[in-house]
Amino acid sequence: xxxxxxxxxxxxxxxxxxxxxxxxxxxKIANQALQLDIWDFEFYHLFLSISNQKEIxxxxxxxxxxxxxxxxVVPKVNGKTLEHFLLTDTTKLKLSKWDIPEPVKGxxxxxxxxxxxxLPLLAYDKQGNRxxxxxxxxxxxxxxxxxxTLKIGLSFFEPEEENIEVSDHDVAxxxxxxxxxxxxxKSN
Length: 188
Fold this sequence. Notes:
Elements: H1 3-15, H2 19-33, E1 43-46, H3 59-67, E2 71-78, E3 81-86, E4 93-95, E5 101-103, E6 116-119, E7 123-124, E8 130-131, H4 137-142, E9 150-154, E10 175-177, E11 182-184
Pfam family, one: 5-FTHF_cyc-lig
EC number: 6.3.3.2
Keywords: ATP-binding, Magnesium, Metal-binding, Nucleotide-binding
């Protein structure tokens, strides 16, 4: 199945979820994340959910990050790239043109400072290849990160059985967390 067909398929799957189901699965994903040995790092990059796209509620993961006395970093679209800002108690957020909560301003964090990235996605396969919305923001960001930076997808759904077509610029996941499983894709 090509990327565009997979995007359409998983957008429909998400639309079929109730708010209650999404919230329950989001909490399960956060609890699954606690099983990973990833909580001794300093900088955790986390996307803030687009509610009208029925994305995973990342508020639960945000609370874990703060509970571990770690730093949460959130993205902001700047042209065709992402900028990254430390999320603090005083960070003001504003909805972008895509309804993404983004920091208005703040302390910039460089990609090479980030230890763990929780990635949004629509679909992924058993090799850790992911499909997002097709804008390429995360693929551009990931190449600027250190090779050892952990890339963790978050999904309500299990992986596609068939391999997803990949491009030269695509960066695979290390893990993907679902409500029921943690999928590991590479040796870490």
